[in-house]
């Protein structure tokens, strides 16, 4: 009985990896060109650790407080658990100082004010932070992220943020979008990435963080390099 969650998580991890590899195959892409960010927001630190032990090296959290709690638990373990944390949700400016030391990448850079505050803290701490700019490609006011024009303006100022490494874009498709609609939205993010790379050749913007459990195939077809997978990894473990 005590082994059961571990077994389930190992099976889920293998299934997700296979599904992502199959989607790459369908899209004519190298499976190594897509990294899986395991989203741990549905579970506590114990199950998150089992996911890491199953082979998931990058874990994404969408809330700073949950990230801190998990990091603290991980650090309290006798044997270190090798994990890289990505922040994938909105980061309030007053939570930067406590979050920055723990993360390798922020997927959800969504304002110039946040960029300025991150720059100040990263520079103070003497480190570089990889960031993705979150784009609201459909310009839907109910969605998070910057409209395309503001993404451009932010990247045009990139040299003011010397401690931030702008590495690409992050986006979510409209909730309950049909697969063709999701695909189309992801394609526009990809097109934006191409246009921005041309406009700002001094920046290196290879990453596209897009696709979740329900739409990662469409995202991979459109060029995703990071897929953020939550629910599929915890199948059989929640609501028991
Ligand atoms: C929850 C979440 C995900 C994962 O979504 P699933 O549908 O559970 O796979 C991905 N990205 C962000 C920003 C999230 O908050």
Describe what is shown at a glance.
The chain has helices at about 5-25, 45-55, 65-75, 95-100, 110-125, 150-155, 180-200, 215-220, and strands at about 35-40, 60, 85, 105-110, 130-135, 165-170, 205-210, 225-230.
What does this structure look like?
It contains 8 helices and 8 strands; from the N terminus they run αβαβαβαβαβαβαβαβ. The protein starts with a helix and ends in an 11-residue tail after the last strand. About 40% of the residues are buried. The model has no long low-confidence stretch (mean pLDDT about 95). It has an 8-stranded parallel beta sheet. It has about 240 residues and is of the alpha/beta class. Helix 1 crosses helix 2 (about 45-55) and helix 2 crosses helix 3. The chain has one domain (about 5-235): TIM Barrel. It binds pyridoxal-5'-phosphate (PLP). Pyridoxal-5'-phosphate binds near residues 41, 228, 229 and 231.
Map the helices and strands:
Blueprint: H1 4-26, E1 35-39, H2 45-54, E2 58-61, H3 64-75, E3 84-87, H4 96-99, E4 103-109, H5 112-125, E5 129-134, H6 148-156, E6 164-170, H7 179-199, E7 207-209, H8 216-221, E8 226-229
Parallel strand pairs: 1-2, 1-8, 2-3, 3-4, 4-5, 5-6, 6-7
Helix pairs in contact: 1-2, 2-3
Pyridoxal-5'-phosphate binds next to strand 8.
């Amino acid at each position: 009985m005590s082994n059961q969650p571990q077994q389930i998580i190992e099976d889920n991890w293998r299934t997700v990896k296979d599904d992502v590899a199959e989607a790459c195959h369908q899209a004519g892409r190298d499976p190594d060109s897509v990294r899986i960010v395991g989203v741990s927001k549905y579970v506590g630190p114990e199950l998150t650790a089992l996911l890491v032990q199953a082979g998931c090296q990058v874990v994404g959290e969408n809330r700073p407080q949950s990230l801190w709690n998990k990091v603290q638990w991980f650090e309290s373990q006798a044997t270190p658990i090798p994990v890289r944390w990505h922040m994938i949700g909105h980061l309030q400016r007053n939570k930067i100082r406590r979050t920055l030391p723990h993360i390798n990448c922020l997927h959800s850079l969504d304002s110039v004010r946040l960029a300025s505050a991150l720059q100040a803290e990263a520079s103070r701490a003497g480190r570089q932070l990889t960031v993705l700019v979150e784009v609201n490609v459909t310009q839907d006011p109910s969605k998070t992220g910057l409209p395309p024009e503001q993404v451009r303006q932010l990247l045009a100022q990139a040299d003011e943020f010397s401690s931030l490494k702008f590495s690409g874009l992050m986006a979510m498709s409209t909730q309950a979008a049909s697969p063709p609609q999701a695909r189309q939205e992801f394609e526009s993010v990809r097109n934006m990435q191409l246009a921005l790379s041309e406009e700002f050749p001094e920046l290196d913007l290879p990453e596209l963080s897009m696709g979740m459990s329900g739409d990662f195939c469409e995202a991979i077809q459109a060029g995703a390099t990071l897929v953020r997978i939550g629910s599929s990894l915890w199948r059989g473990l929640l609501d028991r």
